[in-house]
Amino acid sequence: MLSYRHSFHAGNPADIIKHLVLAHVLEYMTRKEAGYDYIDTHSGAGLFELNSADAQKTQEYQQGIAKLWEYQGESSALVDYVNLIKSFNNESLAFYPGSPKIAERYLRRQDKGWFFELHPKDLQLLEQNMQGKKSLRVRGEDGFKGLLGLVPPASRRACILMDPPYEIKTDYQQAALMINKAYKRFSSGTYMIWYPVVDRQRIDLLEQTLIDSGMKNIQLFELATEQDTQLHGMTASGMIVINPPWTLKKAMDEVLPELVELLSQDSGFFRIQQLVDE
Ligand code: SAM
């Protein structure tokens, strides 16, 4: 039974680090003329209304995108990201794009997008939000398995976002296992796994599983708005990227310290780590 709805969380600090990394990777893919595939294993609805009852109930976006809306700083990565979100809005902040709508911006005529979603309501919304382009394919199927059916892609160039809800605790090991299976078929793809820090031990185990897997060139980027605690929900989140663009670490070196200052009280921190060398 699926109960997770991303509409409660859209635009929160976790979306910010996830979508900053995603946009960087996608932009990098477009630097070559050759077509590529984008595979979104857990897509969500694609676009979120921040005035909806769900978003208003938690108001998580107030701790995330709302704090960046008037950003006037120096970081070009942050300026580009805020401008991207602004392009889905008029004057004021009313919509937040999910990973599919962000990806759509970077998918050209020669590229293909694959979007998996299992929740019936979010699938319907996703279909509505993504209709129009023939190169964008929405599938109401399990994204873990769907990924394996798509690699290696004919284009031989692909980036993959795996962003499960982690409602089921086995999602942590399942994510690592499925990425590793896909990598064995297609080792040159760029794989991004999003993770929440609710219980640090789970993340330590996820990292160790990936380190022990034999996959090369793995980087980790984490944004914490609070110190670790097991007393209440998510305190941090991150992206683990396998075969990242060589430009990603430098961009995150610049952006993460500033994001901690902008989004956390006193106790936030960031992590940037090369988990496995090239
Ligand atoms: N990637 C989205 C974004 O950045 O906007 C958010 C995705 S949300 C964290 C996770 C989504 O995965 C939920 O909409 C949930 O219904 C969906 N889901 C859960 N299990 C799934 C599965 N096995 N295959 C595909 N989608 C799944």
Features:
single chain; alpha/beta; Rossmann fold; 39% helix; methyltransferase
Please specify the SSE layout and strand pairing:
Layout: H1 13-29, E1 37-40, E2 47-49, H2 53-58, H3 65-68, H4 76-86, E3 95-97, H5 99-106, E4 112-116, H6 120-130, E5 136-139, H7 143-150, E6 158-162, H8 171-185, E7 190-197, H9 200-212, E8 218-224, E9 236-242, H10 248-263, E10 269-276
Parallel strand pairs: 1-4, 1-6, 4-5, 6-7
Antiparallel strand pairs: 2-3, 7-9, 8-9, 8-10
The structure holds S-adenosylmethionine.
Description of the molecule:
By secondary structure, the chain is α/β, with parallel strands linked by helices. It has a single domain (6-276), classed as Rossmann fold. The protein contains 10 helices and 10 strands. The chain has an 8-stranded mixed sheet, sandwiched between helices. It is globular and about 45 Å long. The model has no long low-confidence stretch (mean pLDDT 96). The structure holds S-adenosylmethionine. Belongs to the RlmJ family. This is Ribosomal RNA large subunit methyltransferase J. It comes from Pseudoalteromonas holothuriae.
